[in-house]
Amino acid sequence: MTFVRVRLALDRLPPGAILDVLLKGDEPLRNVPRTAAEQGHQVVSQAELPGGVTRLVLRRKG
């Protein structure tokens, strides 16, 4: 479900735009970066934050 929300957010952005995503939990951390890359988006960075949160920065394809 998390990637569905990320995908909808990416779809609203112009090509090349940046999306900053906060993820919590193992499943979103495994699935969101992988699925985004499979769909042609670029994973710009991924960083662990306090409290078990991961900050993922994606660039929309295009």
Automatic annotation (TrEMBL):
InterPro entries: TusA-like (IPR001455), TusA-like_sf (IPR036868)
Domain UPF0033: 1-60
Name of this chain's protein: UPF0033 domain-containing protein
